[in-house]
Design goal:
One of its GO terms (cellular component) is lysosomal membrane. The chain is α+β, with helices and mostly antiparallel strands. The chain contains 15 helices and 32 strands. The strands form eight sheets. Strands 1, 2, 30, 31 and 32 form a five-stranded antiparallel sheet that branches. Strands 15, 16, 17, 18 and 19 form a five-stranded antiparallel sheet that branches. It has a five-stranded mixed sheet with strand order 20-21-22-23-27, with no helix packed on it.
Amino acid sequence: MSEEHYLELCENPVQFENTSSVNNVFFDEANKQVFAVRSGGATGVVVKGPDDKNSVAFRMDDKGEVKCIKFSIGNKILAVQRTPKSVDFISFIPDYPHWECSQECKMKNASILGFCWTNWNEIVFITDQGIEFYQVLPDKRSLKLLKSQSVNVNWYMYCPETAVILLSTTAQGNVLQPFAFKSGTMSKMPKFEIELPVVPKPAKLNLTERDIAVATIYGQLYVMYLKHHSRTTDSPCAEVVLYQLPREGSCKKTNVLKLNTTGKFALNVVDNLVVVHHQSSQTSIIFDIKLREPDCALNVHQPVLPGRSIHPYRIPLTGPAAVPTHPPVPCELYSSSWSVFQPDIIISASEGYLWYLQVKLPPTINLLQDKGKLMDFLLRRRDCKMVILSVCAQMLNGGDKGGLPVVATVFDKLNQVYKEYLEAEQTYTVATESGPSRGSAARERPVRTRAVIDQSDMYTHVLSSFSEKKDTSHKFIIAVLMEYIRSLNQVQITVQHYLYELVIKMLVQHNLFYMLHQFLQYHVLSDSKPLACLLLSLESTYPPAHQLSLDMLKRLSTANDEIVEVLLSRQQVLGALRFIRSVGGHDNISARKFLDVARQTADQMLFYTIFRFFEQRNLRLRGSPSFNPGEHCEEHVVYFKQVFGEQALMKQVTV
């Protein structure tokens, strides 16, 4: 089913020329560039990168067949290898005189296997006798040898993201020697051995570069070994063995990914997931090394999801042959002409396309039934927020069948991530306010990932609409709301008032006043000004709510002006007056504000009551019932006379 394809090729691939006139196509993993080289007279080169800035075309003298060609970072200097002994350099530095030079490897009788740029002006030659680290000096039009190391090399692999080169040494090729490069320095890391499968004697197995990939997963560098077992063994199925390669300390075997089949495989890493492509079945499977299998030994992983093919891709027709009525041509997936590069690149040499492999999260929802495991999986993905919210909505739409324990598990997982972000944000704020401490590096503000689902997200996209569902038991709705509040409290996150309002609204709607009283009495619903205001507004429906709100406000010991404003905005003038008297602030309130609202209600007796209250206050405070000019109540006095007559005004008491 098409909706189950959880892997897809990007919509806008890099397209490069690969006609019969193109002699060679090269891919540079560091710059993600494809070089199409055409020779004959002068050598024409067309370079295509992920965007137009990385695309360039030029010609250079034909000095022989090109074996390797790469730009330095930023397209500043071009390096071209044509012979086993030397590499040619051509300057592309903007606003700088053009220059060319050539550099031979220093080791006698050595052959250059390839080279890697580690900076815009730093390059490493890998020979069959070791490595040579050079700095390019544009001013002197030459190279300076910074460091070299002798070691027998079978093949090499480079990880541009970490600037680590892996050399295969020894006869069987399974002892790997890593070197790290940074700012003009070369560091030799501890070597390690890849455990080869046991084969019947006298056969011998050699490790080849086809069996190895290097990539960063969850911020750590891993060497991935595609291990094919002998058919004579008990479990002939292939597996991927992961070796973690730390900057400090020795490399160690950390994870085993069970492929449960044999055949030809290729590896990618997308969004911290190891993707294993299987050519004969034309399917791919994904592994998440942070997901633990309960039935497996530690760090032995089964595929997260069942195998599925990459989503079908159609190549649009272009050029003179393109006819608007012709549909796009289906692309041959898992083709033998495909080349896979780390971390997420697939190149079809025959069709002239470079794609980035992508993970589609929505199809995973129905493929992974365990909601707890699904949440663990989604929370580690890049664009996960809306998918997670849709999972929550879908889970609750099942009504009572969804099961409160499952709901609780999901909420706890979401709020744990939410809490970790809030704590990191608080630590950053405290550190920023206190200023940088001596000798410590400046703190970086924590990044709010898409996995942070806060209360506003949950309220807006899930709980608000869920609470209005007519076909779901109100008891289940209240239980879910309380479960979310419990989960927030468990990780000590302050619950926002709008969640409490949602609960109270449900309780009032279904006349569950006893439960409301219990929740408030035992502080299940935490005290807050907005909550107190809401309770005050419920007085007509549930009279004890008035006293409950007053008790809450007294516990808060907070400013009372806001409560008065809220009540007046709801035209609850008597409620506002009663409240302000209970907290002893009635001598200082604005008479005009109360009279304005009382008059707006068009309730003449209410206006009479409020007017009389302020006359009595004036009399008590100043000995006269009249309003002072500064109170600006003249229009209300006029209105009172019109409705009730002048004789209704209080008379000044004479002693």
